[in-house]
Each structure stands twice: as structure tokens, then as C-alpha cells.
Amino acid sequence: MEFIVGVLIVGGIWAYSTMRKNYNHQIADILSSKATSWYEEQGINPESVKYSIYRDPALVQNVGASIIVGAGDRSDGRPVGFAVEIVSGKGVIEGDAYLPVAICSIHKDKAVVYAKTYGLSLLDALGTMALEFRAKYPNAD
């Protein structure tokens, strides 16, 4: 009897976990598809985009927004970082492209900590980090 209860509990946890993962992938696909036209407007090839999604209300400028932070290649092949705020039903509310690309790829988690530490939105933190980098390394690309 205990074995059957254990199997049912483990099965229930597995089913819940699987449904949750599928839901998160569906949300990611929907948000990314809403950003496709913004990518194209910025000259970013949508097929080259790799991103992370943040749904933390403390990081957004617009109520109910989610943030996509990532990197992609411009039409000339040069990489660029980006961040966009997307509100369900409205699409991209605001966004920006950032150089160097590392700010939005390997340092995006540092930007999240920076934003929360200084009470900034994630887009403002990324912009500040990009400005600080360019001031420190004016000839870097």
C-alpha cells in the first residue's frame, strides 16, 4: 500500500513538473514571437537570437511586462545584445540594443543584481553598464 501511494505521489510530481515546463516553453515562444518585428526593426536576424526571459516585477518599467534579454546577429553578421519589455496583448513596449554584446549574454545576471541593488529597471541597468564599459574601454567594439 505504501509503495502504491509513493508511486502516485512521484507520478503526480512528475506530471505537474512536465506541465509546468511545457507552459514555460509556450510563454517563451509567445513572448519571443511578439518581439520578432522589433528584432527586424533593429536589424537583428530573428533566427540568430538567443535569450532569457525575466518575469520579475521589480525589474520592469511597465506594469505587467516581461523582459527578454539576449543577443543576436545583425544583418552584417556583427553580434549585438538587446533587451525588450513586452506586455501581453500590447507587444514590445520598449527596448534597446547594447554593445558590447556580453552585457546581455554572459553578464545579464550581473545586470539583474545591479538593477535590484540600485533600484533600477533591468533596461536602465543594462544601459548604465554599457555606458560604463564604453567609458572604460572607448576603443572596444
Explain what you see.
The chain is an alpha+beta fold and 141 residues long. Helix content is 47%, strand content 22%. It has 3 helices and 4 strands; from the N terminus they run αββββαα. It has helices at residues 2-41, 108-118, 122-136; strands spanning 50-54, 65-73, 79-87, 91-98. It has a 4-stranded antiparallel β-sheet, with helices on both faces. A hairpin with a 5-residue loop joins strand 2 (65-73) and strand 3 (79-87). Helix 2 (108-118) packs across helix 3 (122-136). The longest helix is centred in the first third of the chain and has 40 residues, at 2-41. The chain is globular, with a radius of gyration of 19 Å. It starts with a helix and ends in a 5-residue tail after the last helix. The model is unreliable at 18-25 (pLDDT under 50).
